[in-house]
Model the fold of this input.
Amino acid sequence: MTKGKTVAKKSRLSRDQKRKSKLTRERKEHRESSVLPYKGNTYKSPELIPTLFRTELGIHEADVMSERSLTDNDVRAALEQLVLGLRQGPLPPQDDSNRFSDTGSQADLIVWNIRQNWKDLYRESPNPGRDKLIGVLRTLLDSINTWSTPSPASRGYLHFIEGFLKKQGASVRIVDENMEEVEGENGEDELLKVGRAAYLSNDPVAIEKFSKRVMQLTASGQVERVVNVCQQLMGEVGVNRPLARELSSLSMAAQQALPQLPHERG
Done:
């Protein structure tokens, strides 16, 4: 009876095959750890419109709760965090206190409030499931890329959804323990009020005056202010309206005056 022994087999893969195998493994690991925006319309179906709406409402509510201190990059980080969490399985339950811990980050606040909105929505409507939730979040990541600017402090997307939600009749207010509205430190931008009056009335003279004012502010360096107002007005007017094209042109002209900074997308 011969004594058995273990013999290590020499790999028969060539150096090129090993390199390709390593690249394949690295690509798979990258796909699992990265979140790519989705540009299609699959997750804008009638079935998923309520989820899209409540997700963006959750984002806007978080912005109001933070006294509008969020940036588009905070929202991007939050959506990516949610996608990565969903890929791992069911999300851990949230407590029922309806209070966010002040120790969390800006992205944590957004995640928490999106999930609060989902919880409210799915009490009466069926949850579409993990894969579709991920698709909705990736669709919104593409929307962030569309409406934000190259500035690290960009709030273009946040202003757009504020206008869009206003058009849908959604109003977000902060109230105290007696359910009385708490006034914010800053009111609406006067430029936004002027633009809203001009575009919603479709008054050519008022629109021309607004356009000239926007160009003056752009020339004076108030680019982010101009972009934010134009993005919010596009949300309020409706992106498919002819008037939105002029607002888009004003916004793009202003963005061309921004420093050419690298902008991580997706």
